[in-house]
Amino acid sequence: MPTILITGCSSGFGLDTAKLFLDRGWNVIATMRAPNAELLPASDRLRILSLDITDAESIAKAAAAAGDVDVLVNNAGFGAPSPIELTAPETINDLFATNTIGTLALTQAILPQMRARRAGVVINVTSTVTLKPLPVVGVYRASKAAVNAFTESLAVEMKPFGVRVHIVLPGRSPETRFGANARPHLRGLDDPDYAPLIQQFVGMVQDSSGPVTYGQDVAEAVWHAVTDPAAPLWIPAGADAEAWMAEAGR
Predict the structure, then answer these.
(1) N or C: which end of the chain has fewer CB within 10 A?
(2) Cβ contacts of 85 within 8 Å, gap of 6 or more
(3) Could you confirm whether 194 is annotated as catalytic?
């Protein structure tokens, strides 16, 4: 039975993806900063590993403990909406350390075994906000767009070795902790110049009248990438993501 390693499984897309692959008979390695066995159903096909993708030692330990991995899903990340001018330097560093550098570092740790076997799949979960300019998420967007860029190059580098590489792009989701986790980083609500723009953005994010992305959408998009050898490099997850992808000509 093949093995999939998924990061960021404590909630949201990562948790839903881990559940789906467990339900469909895979061996699942679910990673999270603070392991919690109660989040997933008990199974002899499940392992939960501690992983902080901003810590090199943690990455090395997790990669060693995981052993051979057929599929890597880089899902861990966080958002911090704030006007670019007002975004704190530490927030900028944290966004790139987690969303970009951490994803790249774990990929580097897992790739050698895939290349040696001439088989494997790497899936990087980014965001549809990378498809068009939006206010208030500029730094977050940049951190995810950088993942898109290196993933495109990685796909070319890995093709001769039989390793497939894909980008899954979720849309706006009402089910994740994105908003709650991002709120402490938000700046500008008390700024008369930026407050209207921020309020407009928050209203758009909270609007539930249009299509959105659910965790199951992301899990199914990952499943598609893993099980279909003809799957495209870019895969939208969610009805809104599909619309944005079409608009962007992807």
Answers:
(1) N
(2) none
(3) no
